[in-house]
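User: My instructor asked us to take a sequence, write out its structure as tokens, and then describe one feature of it. I'm not sure where to start. Here is the sequence I was given:
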Amino acid sequence: MGGGDIKLLAMIGAMIGWQGILFTIFAASALGTIVGLLAMLKSGKGMQLAIPFGPFLAGGAMIYLFSVSV
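Assistant: Let's start with the prediction itself. The structure tokens for your sequence are:
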């Protein structure tokens, strides 16, 4: 996680609270793992492939927002 990811997570936390942050980090890690493994297998670069984490943080927050509002 870089500096931008920390700032994004702080903004997400200000919106959804600390309970949402815990879920967001877990969901983002799970999404990032799945997409990262698929991308590494497809590209053939293996562990040399760099993937930004911010979109997965945003996706985890969206999943939390839509699952809580139901």
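For the description part of your assignment, you could build on this observation: Residues 3-68 form one domain. Try explaining in your own words what that tells you about the chain.
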